[in-house]
Structure formats: structure tokens, C-alpha cells
Amino acid sequence: MRAVITVIGRDMVGILARVSTACADANANVIEVTQSVMQEFFAMIMLIDISLLNCEIEELKNELSEKCPDMKIHVMHENIFNSMHRI
Amino acid sequence: MLNMTDIMETITMIEEECLDIRTITMGISLLDCADESIDRSCEKIYKKIHSYAKDLVQVGESIEKKYGIPIVNKRISVTPIAMLVAASGGDPVKYAKTLDRVAKDVGVNFIGGYSALVHKGFSPGDRELINSIPQALAETEFVCSSVNIGTTKAGINMDAVKIMGQVIREAAEKTRDKQCVGAAKLVIFCNAPEDNPFMAGAFHGPGEPDSVINVGVSGPGVVRAALAKMPKDAPLDEIADTIKKTAFKITRMGQLVGIEASQQLGVPFGIIDLSLAPTPAIGDSVAHILEEMGLETCGGWGTTAALALLNDAVKKGGVMASSHVGGLSGAFIPVTEDAGMIDAARKGVLTIEKLESMTAVCSVGLDMIVIPGDTPAEIISGIIADEAAIGMVNNKTTAVRVIPAIGLEEGEELDFGGLLGKGPIMKVNPSSPSILINRGGRIPAPLQSLKN
Q1: pTM score
Q2: For residue A76, which residues of chain B lie inside 8 Å, CB to CB?
């Protein structure tokens, strides 16, 4: 089981570190990271393995929102993207 | 492998374009609750609904969190209550109060099925239930009611049409201190679907299994946003293709949620109703889709053609995305629930007569239309008869949900708040169909019904 984390907002020091620390605390393995910075705008998509997650997806999302207060954060099960964009 | 564009597209649809699952509706058969004592019958109903639906809201919320997609409503539909009244007799309002209590206790926001199917005539229980509708809707909060007065196979029961005009007025009068909301929870159908998850017309048809999960998807904002990205000179076949692709994606999401909900609740998955259901929220309007297609204002000439294209493309896109499509499926045009329709009606561009022609090509009928409070019952019956005729002849579902704004006149506004929205009181042609309506009897089924 995998989930997708997206982080969007103004670029600053330590975003990736904060997100990956929260993932490690939740026992989620990071599989892939794509990030881009355009001018001051930061966008990151992280694919994580949640088979051994020690909390609910919702809790991980709340934890991330707390650690990166000014960023827009979503944590969503990958199946929603697979079902919408794959036949 | 997932790519960034797809992920961002989904997130934009949810965040900015109001994409959501409009409703997860659990259908529950109450046929095994029928008892000759109405009190015992009510007790059985409460127990059955409570045991089947106690986890519905919580499961809905857990799916919302897992996929990050809002599921706006969790609802219940039940067997038409007139069938239980037939067995028990007694005051049908007792059933309404039981449904209201159980809806409150399990936390759903509407329960549908205070209904009667009288398209060919009245059987025991039907008249009692219909006469009790105004009181039942006035004394409950969550109960929705519907009556099917015609089908393509049976024709139109004009005795029922006459009564329903009076019942709508009475439902509004009894709730005049609550924005006449009783009439907003009452739908008169022709060709009512048995598996519709949308309120106020949802009921659990007698041909349905014991229990079932039906899902209603939405997403007018997503379709409008997709069309807004297209050049103004793009031909209509390309417009139709874009709508199909968007409808496909929306429906796939509904299918995912429906299957997950049915697994978690241990209830079979029924259908996806792939309807574009507007809300008063900005950017969630069907009228704005039509305007994006090239109309100056919804309701002007060209509206019916644009709506026909939209309704058809939504179905074509959605059908392949789901194993079972049902319910109403298409585009809804409820006036007070659609920001674009409200504006068009205020400007006087959108009239009831135009809405009537739109109902010939969309998925439902005259929906959430506020009419002057002094509109006589026989004119409301005339509106019902006209809509039913369109449905009967065209083999489609049509419905009437009009709200006589008691004490208010044309040009004033009625504000329900919430999902039901608000709207101006629309002009109704005052010429009386009184003699026609009072003839009663049945309009025979059309030739189209003889397909065997």
C-alpha cells in the first residue's frame, strides 16, 4: 500500500527534512521524491509505503501540517490517482 | 507509475473546482418490518435501520480521510413507507417520526422513502400516506418524501396529479415559518428510478436487494474548468470529448469510493449515479458550464441544445468508468441550488417555460423552483401533469419539486440556507387548467410502452 504526499508553498530551508522526519516517525518508507522550485514557489510530491504505517493517514497529514504550517499539504492513498488516471 | 501532472490535476479538481462525492446512500428494505401493529412495525424499522446504518457515517468519514476526497452527504433510503402502511394501517406520521429519530441517531443528514408508487392507481396505504405528507414533513427534520404518479408503461394517474398539487401547497403552508421547506423535501416523479441516491427523491425500490450502497458523484466545477481551458472556437465535438474525459475521471473516483464503502460496510455495491449536481458554492454550477460552452446567459436560446450535449457526454464518459451506472445520471438543473441559474432567473432570462424544455433533455425535471405563494393547487397540478407527460413520452425520469413561497410574491426571494440554496420567486402563467385537472382518471400509456 502506498500513499502520495504533496507539499506546495513558499520555499524555505528544511521542508524536505521536516517531511521525511515525520514519515520516519510514522514508520513510512519513502519510495520516491519529485520536487521543483520555480522562483520562490516550492512543489514536492513524495511517494511513500504505508503498509507498516503506525498511525492513520489523517494523523500523518496533521503532523505534517503542524511541522510545515504555511504549506498546503495533502496525503492521499495512491488508489485515487490510479483509478482516475489509469484504465 | 504516477506522474506529477496527474497528481496535481486531481488535487486541483478537489481543492479549486469543488470535486466531491455528493452522497453515499444506503438503501435498506423494510419489507420484513411490516407488522399489523403500527407500533411494532415502527420498532422493527428503528432496529433494522439502526443495525444496518450505524457505521455508515463513520465509514464515510474514514474513506474521506484515506483518499482526501470530501464526501458531502451520508444518507439512507428505505422501502416506500406506503407499503408498510398497507400492512399496519394507523397514522403514517408515526413512521415519519421513527425514520426521523433513527436518522438523527445514526447521524445521516436525510432519510428518503416516505413515498408511494401510485402510477396506475392507489392501493391500500397509498392515500393515507399521501394525505399525511404535509404533516410528516412539517413535524420531522430529516425525512424526504416522493410520489410516483406516472410511468411510460402505465400512463399518468391524473387523480394522483390532482391530489399532489394540493399536497405541495399544504406542505409549504405547514412550514411557512421555516421558508416553506416542506415543499423542498417533496418530489413528484414520472418514471422514478428505484436506485436513485439523491434526495429528496431517493427511495429503496421493491426490486432492490435487502441492502445496497449507491453513490452519487458530482463535479460541475471540474467540467466547467476543463471547458474554460479550451479555445472559444473549438468545435462542439471537441467540447463533447472533453466533457466525456472529465466525466470518466469523476466516475472512476465514485466507483472507487462506492466499492470501498460497500466492502467496509459488508453491503453489496449497487450503482454509481453519475450526475452533475450543482451547489450554491461559487464554481459549482451547471448553468456556468452552459455559459462556458458559449451562452451569454443560461436560459437564452441555445440552452436546450447545450444541455442536451452536456447530459449525453456525461453519460458516455461515465458509463465506461463504472460497472453499474443507474439512478438519475445526467445533469441536474435545480434553480435555487445553482449560482448561475439563480443569476439567470433574477435577470428574467431563465423562465419556467424554458426550464420545462430543458427537462426534456436533462436527467430530471423542474427542480427547486420557487413559485408565488398564491399559485392555486390546480396550476401546480398542471405543472406536474406537463412534466410527467414529457417523461412518459420520452421514456425518461422527470420530476417536479416546486416551492410555493407562502406570503411572498413574484420578484421577492426565498432563502433556505445550506445546500438547498436560495432563489427568486419565478413567474407562473396564471391561466387555469382547472377543468382538465378535475376530470381525473388516467392518461393512457403511450404507444412507446408497447415494446413487447
Answers
A1: 0.92
A2: 10, 66-69
